[in-house]
Specification:
By secondary structure, the protein is an alpha+beta fold. The protein has one domain (7-397): Cytochrome p450. Helix content is 50%, strand content 9%. The protein starts with 6 loop residues before the first helix and ends in a 17-residue tail after the last strand. A hairpin with an 8-residue loop joins strand 10 (381-382) and strand 11. The protein has a 5-stranded mixed beta sheet with strand order 1-2-8-5-3. It contains 17 helices and 12 strands. It is globular. Bound molecules: protoporphyrin IX containing FE. The site of protoporphyrin IX containing FE has 26 residues, from helix 6, helix 13 and helix 17.
Length: 414
């Protein structure tokens, strides 16, 4: 790959499709299949870079320390990604230390403690949305739910919450190659990064704050550098807000397109446990993060394919999740399977927010589905982002009263 080329340039040149098109945004899976058919689970580009589509091969890369980010990340070289060096883009030992600090502030117990509050917020949002009989699942439920929960967790002060949410929406777009983003949006993304760092600084100066933000700032292992705390919080904002919106929105859309599977959930009374199990298949079927980038840190191989040191490795999580060697009828949503999907990645960078995302999506479905969401005929729109994939508006009709409710779910006031 030429130094000036972006990931998109590379894929567009090497693949029989153009990821810059609207068609790709609407349905990338058809394009992945074309490559899988012609190249198998590992696609080598002429320049020696590698695109991984297979499930076993994706697991092998994500779990192998020979693949990482290196001194110059795949993002730096391709223009893909977040320019700030957050721990998502670092290798051990720096990564291990920073990740551990966040993990300690973000325990399973803390997530569990949020369960009732998440249920309450979801119940209220759905109730309000259903009142008029129609709603946009994204604007009325998914986005406000995710924004409130992550803001609570991080400890964002009330008066800064709208600004954090606006910055998050732009940062997720900033994970794409710059070549796919118009100059005006690029400028807004750059301003959002600076603004968010300033707002995190403002929040840190407030006394007696709560949440991860302050836990990180007062780490037991001595005061960490302020810049590191700001970068880590910015990473949580970038990683935490829009991904969960994508899960709820893509998931609801997938269910609407598979009425037989919706009926299965109705038959289970939309019970919380059934919705939680459904979330796993929804994560497999249409994951909100499609790509995990790596770089070969040494000469290596992927399932026998040699990968020279310095080669870029693009792990297509959305393609691995539909590997026909692992998932029967991979392009069908089937709630009867127990999918071991890769939507949250694997290995040392495995998503730290997975439990929270599952909790939120389960709460959203548990409260939304008893209102029998039906399409309105209004076209579904997708975010133009490629790395993150998310339905951007999803208009549905909802019954003002719930049916076959997930009684007993937190927040349910039936
Ligand atoms: C459905 C929702 C989500 C999905 C699909 C998702 C997906 C991912 C993936 C694929 C990675 C690994 C990337 C790689 O290996 O290159 C990751 C990492 C990460 N995620 Fe998530 N995520 C979600 C929600 C969240 C939430 C709610 C938070 C926090 C509030 C979060 C925080 C993080 C962090 C901090 C990392 C970096 C971990 C590390 O580098 O060690 N994520 N996520």
């Amino acid at each position: 790959m030429e130094a000036s080329e972006t990931f998109v340039d590379c894929l567009t040149r090497q693949f029989p499709f153009d990821i810059g098109t609207d068609e790709f945004v609407r349905n990338p899976y058809r394009f992945y299949e074309e490559v899988r058919r012609s190249s198998g689970p590992v696609h080598r580009t002429d320049s020696g870079d590698v695109v991984v589509l297979g499930y076993f091969e994706a697991r092998a890369v994500l779990g192998d320390p020979r693949f990482g980010h290196g001194a110059q990340t795949a993002q730096d070289r391709t223009g893909y990604g977040v320019p700030a060096r957050t721990f998502l883009l670092t290798d051990p030992p720096g990564h291990t230390r920073q990740r551990e600090r966040v993990r300690r502030a973000f325990t399973a117990r803390e997530i569990l403690a949020l369960r009732r509050r998440v249920g309450d917020i979801a119940a209220r949002l759905v109730e309000d949305a259903a009142r008029s009989g129609t709603a946009d699942v994204v604007a009325d439920v998914a986005r406000p739910l995710s924004a409130r929960v992550v803001a609570d967790l991080i400890g964002v002060p009330e008066d800064l919450r709208d600004r954090f949410a606006q910055a998050a929406a732009l940062l997720v777009r900033g994970m794409d190659p710059p070549g796919l983003i118009d100059p005006g949006t690029r400028e807004r993304i750059a301003r959002a990064r600076v603004g968010l760092a300033r707002d995190i600084g403002v929040a840190l100066r407030r006394p007696a704050g709560t949440g991860i933000l302050h836990a990180l700032a007062q780490g037991a292992d001595g005061r960490p550098a302020r810049a590191e705390t700001v970068a880590t919080c910015a990473q949580l904002v970038a990683a935490g807000y829009e991904t969960t919106v994508g899960l709820i929105a893509n998931g609801t859309h997938a269910l609407l397109r598979h009425p037989d599977q919706l009926a299965r959930l109705a038959a289970a009374g939309h019970a919380e446990r059934a919705c939680a199990a459904a979330v796993e298949e929804l994560l497999r079927f249409d994951p909100p993060i499609q790509l995990a980038p790596r770089c070969a840190l040494v000469d290596a191989d992927i399932a026998g394919t040699p990968v020279p040191r310095g080669a870029l490795v693009f792990v297509l999580l959305g393609a691995a999740n539909r590997d026909p060697r692992v998932f029967a009828e991979p392009h069908r949503l089937r709630l009867d399977r127990e999918p071991r999907h890769l939507a949250f990645g694997l290995g040392s960078h495995y998503c730290l927010g997975a439990a929270l995302a599952r909790l939120e999506a389960t709460a959203a479905l548990t409260h939304l589905l008893p209102r029998r969401p039906r399409p309105t005929g209004h076209p579904v729109s997708y975010s133009p982002a490629r790395v993150a994939r998310s339905v951007q508006s999803l208009h549905v009709r909802l019954d003002p009263e719930g049916h076959g409710t997930g009684a007993g779910a937190p927040g349910w006031r039936g």
